[in-house]
Here is the input.
Amino acid sequence: MTTIAIIGTGNVGGAIGTAAVKAGYDVVFAARDDEKTRAAADAAGAGMASSLRDAVAQSDIVVLAVPYGALADVAAEIAPVVAGKIVVDPTNPLKADYSGLATAADTSGAEELAALLPGARVVKAFNTLFAGNTANPEALGIQLDSLFATDDEAAKDAICGLSSSIGFRPIHVGPLTASRELEAMAWLNIRLQLISNGSWNTAFALVSPPEAALTKVA
Ligand SMILES: NC(=O)c1ccc[n+]([C@@H]2O[C@H](COP(=O)([O-])OP(=O)(O)OC[C@H]3O[C@@H](n4cnc5c(N)ncnc54)[C@H](OP(=O)(O)O)[C@@H]3O)[C@@H](O)[C@H]2O)c1
Here is the structure.
């Protein structure tokens, strides 16, 4: 069985972890607060690890559901055990005042993460989906897209399997550098909600995606 480590117990970690358990994955939570970790694990029907490193060591897929600003610390913590593993980056590198992206135009949070974890198979995914939609993918009455970017074939297969088992249509939008656009898309969606006082459930569904972007899941 595929084991997924969920690092972080907030909106995104809880939503992906709960959905992954329902989809039949073996899920283990880890975070910096033991009580919150236990609560998230219990709510999801998942297990918990005593440390981030322990969670990653026992997993095939690692989801870093933490703020962008925490990625460097988390990466340093898991670096010794993450080689060869699929690392899912759902973070959005927003400025603290929500005025835009904190990254330079010629990079992305995911590329920064990949540079910190050179042995890992990094994939940008779930960042364009609000956590409420990830927790309930069918609520809007149409199938939503899980847009992802990666250079790695194994990561591509893994995220296709995870996304489709949760209920999304996975679409490979390009190499990891396409994370720049995925992060910009997420910011566009977030800004729309901020300026319209919205209900935080807008989502992307691409019309007529090219066949090559739709990976067949075994
Ligand atoms: N919310 C959404 O709809 C959404 C959608 C797509 C992507 N994202 C992105 O996904 C990421 C997580 O968002 P979220 O809404 O789940 O956030 P959240 O609810 O605030 O949860 C963040 C988690 O990260 C942990 N954390 C914070 N700082 C940390 C640090 N320095 N080291 C280790 N762990 C730390 C928190 O632990 P404590 O509880 O101990 O603080 C918490 O478990 C963000 O990067 C966000 O931009 C969010």
Observations:
- Helices lie at 11-22, 34-44, 52-57, 71-78, 109-116, 131-135, 153-166, 179-196.
- The longest helix spans residues 179-196.
